[in-house]
Give the backbone structure.
Amino acid sequence: MSDYPDRPNILLILTDQQRADTVAALGNNRIRTPNLDSLVREGVAFTQAYSPSPVCVPARACLQYSQYPGKTGCLDNIHPTTRGEQDSYADVLSRNGYETIGIGKCHFLPDRQALRGFKRRLTQEEAPKKIEDDDYLQFIQKSPYRNVRDVHGTWREMIYMPQTSPLDEAHHPTQWVGDRTIDFINEQAEEDKPWMAFCSFIHPHPPYAPPVPWDMMYSPDDMEDPHLPDDFQARQPAFQRAGLHEYYFDPPTSNTLWRMVKARYYACVSFVDYQVGRIVNALRDSGQLQNTLIIFSSDHGEMLGDLGLIGKGNMYNASSRVPLIMRWGDGRHAGSQIETPVTLVDIGSTILCAAGLGLPAEFDGIDLAETIGHPERFERRIVFSQVFNPDRGIYMSTDGRFKYIHSAPDASEELYDMREDPLEDINLFRDPQHQEKIQELRDALFDYLESTEQNHVLEYGPRRWRDWPPEVIQKPRTKSNDPCLWWEAREREVN
């Protein structure tokens, strides 16, 4: 077993599309997350953690390479990572004696089978093209559920609708990731080598399809209505507003439906929480808990009806903020809550520092442990986020209290004081008393864009945002007759 703390084991647990406000111990009294609550009590919660790009693929590229989107070149789910020649955090660990594994959803594009530094992977992706490319589908093919088409729940027009999984708990994709992680932990208990496991759950990303009996864990009547201020429609970014049509949520949408969606979403979070408990118990039972750094986070959030929106892809807190919890094996800093602004870009950097390997020069992140011991060093820290191509780009910078947002297709700028206005209802952009803060956060964002060779989104003399031609953004419906790719592949193999 490795010699803690010089060479700790590292367990990174990542969910997909989990809001920052879905942990009971951090203030949500309607959700049950006893195992995440334990991590909060025994570790450190970063209460101002942000996604560097609130969409799946770019967020994960940022995490893997500890770099902002301007360096990875990945701005949307359709973009591959273009600057992936440099080392990922997993590359550095693998090269320095760590056994490394990726379990579950990695969402690496363009090569879904890429290792990106891990020595091995156990794959579970949402829409693989071949059964042999996905370890979870191979598992299902040997089960009583081999003829089930939508093993992850029904996509297409049903993707954001509340559902129940067609699989039992033991065969559910969430439990499969938990089981494989436990198997790896138990295997490593017999090895004299430090390890790093990336345990990545697809849930609570839609389809919201928890298994029985978890599907009925929450009643819609116990859920809060979405946050819909009087001007909510005017605040909807154009690209996300178009997504309502794509996913069959054209307004008006009833609050009853939003509460039903939230109930199943919460059930998905609670089922992941159950797996977290099982995994931590496996560490404890195998004698490895004291020697393991646990990090829990998500790639981005979910609007869940707030501002009348579904999904992600904007810079409001519901979409851009994520949970981030760290638990050291020796219990250091237990119960701390840190308000320094941090980002998924920091996770890879923190992992390498915890392993005693230092920070590669090309990494943008910081060691999160430093924010705990020396918060004064980060009093003026600003973190960034961006998503989509320049003409549809949305950009954000925040110092943890104030958040500045620019949406290119809407030609809009916003400033929110998140301490006084946590629901982000009062846009201070035209408030004379906040012009200095606006200039500070906007200049920091401009500096970031220039440093990452994104000058094309700016105009000069004086420096300002580029104006893009007005565009009516339309997104086609997600068609109900689109084929399920893995099912189609299976039919070809059978016939």
